[in-house]
Amino acid sequence: MEPITTPRRALVTGATGLLGSSITRALAGLGTEVTALVRDERRARRLLPSSGRLRLLEGDVTRPESYASALPGCDAVFHTAAYFREYDQPGGPDLALLERTNVWAVTALLEAAARESVPVVVHTSSHGILAPVPGALADESSPVTTVPRNGYIASKIRAEERIREFRRHGAVRVPVIRPAWMWGPGDAGPTSSGRLFLAIARGALRVVPRGGNHTVDARDVARACIAAAAVGKGTYNVAGAWLPLPGVCADIAGVTGTTAPRAISPRVALAAAGALEFGARLRRRPPVASRDGVRAMLEGSHRRVSSARAEQELGVVFRPIRQTLEDEAAWYHEQEML
């Protein structure tokens, strides 16, 4: 495969998130002049590398006027910003904000990029939109789920529909990356994987459901996004490997020196998650796990996804989960979160 050409100038939305920060670091390391769209500049200075090639722009993806000045002269936009952390919380998500952030803002960004003649916008979707294919691997041509169980997945389906409509007439190339459950250093939010990691590392989680999901290092997804900006056409699953959850949790315990949680049945796990939700509601804190989060995990137990297209066309290579978890532990220690 020929070397991938990296953009000279790029805008990254959601730049302090797990994937956004991975893309930002990778681009800056490759010599790209990066504008990082962030909601809190002070927090971003703490989380992102200090580099003369990195400019922080405080704004919001739902307000196109806040990032419009960064688009002229851009060779690529990497869109990772999304409303997702609250989708599996008790009480459900703010559906209006979810729609505005995950669907409307996608169309607004594509239209703004087209006005400024930006050649490519790489959009981040989710492998969770794919319907399980009994006895087979789902690929990019497989159907999406018709009855999504949570608002986040439904919003990602609608966003991809908007992108397909835009492609019919838009001059902007829009590759779509569908990552699996992402892990790795830089998960400051933290996302659901980071919350699980920290809960085990702190000894706060005693049980996990039997089942599993596709897991992938966010840095490998970042490389796929950068390659897609150069050569990508269409949609790419970047799903890593399907791994049993108890095994991943045992590896977390191994790299952090704690006790691995015990594997329990899905029914018992749902009941335990309900108890965690109730306790978190009383303490006014996010729960370590929720029933919707457990259901999403159990759906992943039945889904197997092929990343062959991304491997062949984008040169994606997936690192072992143990390496990912070791690096994540080191990063959390550096951030004094452990």
What do you see in this structure?
By secondary structure, the protein is α/β, with parallel strands linked by helices. It has a domain at 9-185 and 217-239 and 304-319: Rossmann fold, CATH 3.40.50. It is 42% helix and 15% strand. It is built from eleven helices and twelve strands. The chain has helices spanning 18-29, 41-47, 95-115, 151-167, 192-201, 218-231, 245-256, 266-283, 291-300, 308-314, 321-334, and strands at residues 9-13, 33-38, 54-58, 76-79, 121-124, 176-179, 181-183, 207-209, 212-217, 235-238, 241-244, 262-264. Strands 3-2-1-4-5-6-10 form a seven-stranded parallel beta sheet, with helices on both faces. Strands 7-9-11 form a three-stranded mixed beta sheet. The longest helix is centred in the N-terminal third of the chain and has 21 residues, at 95-115. The radius of gyration is 19 Å and the shape is globular. The protein starts with 8 loop residues before the first strand and ends with a helix. The model has no long low-confidence stretch (mean pLDDT 92).
Q: Count the beta strands.
A: 12
Largest sheet: 7 strands, parallel
CATH homologous superfamily designation of the domain at 9-185 and 217-239 and 304-319: NAD(P)-binding Rossmann-like Domain
Q: What topology, given as strand order, has the largest sheet? A: 3-2-1-4-5-6-10
**Would you list the SSEs in sequence order as H and E?**
EHEHEEHEHEEHEEHEEHEHHHH
The overall pLDDT average reads 92
Structural class: alpha/beta
Give start-end ranges of low-pLDDT stretches: none
CATH top level label of the domain at 9-185 and 217-239 and 304-319: Alpha Beta
Tally of contiguous helical segments: 11
Strand content: 15-25%
Rg value: 19 Å
Named at the architecture level, the CATH assignment of the domain at 9-185 and 217-239 and 304-319 is 3-Layer(aba) Sandwich
Share of residues in helices: 40-55%
Rough shape?
Answer: globular
What is the CATH fold-level name of the domain at 9-185 and 217-239 and 304-319?
A: Rossmann fold
Q: Gap between N and C termini, in Å? A: 40 Å
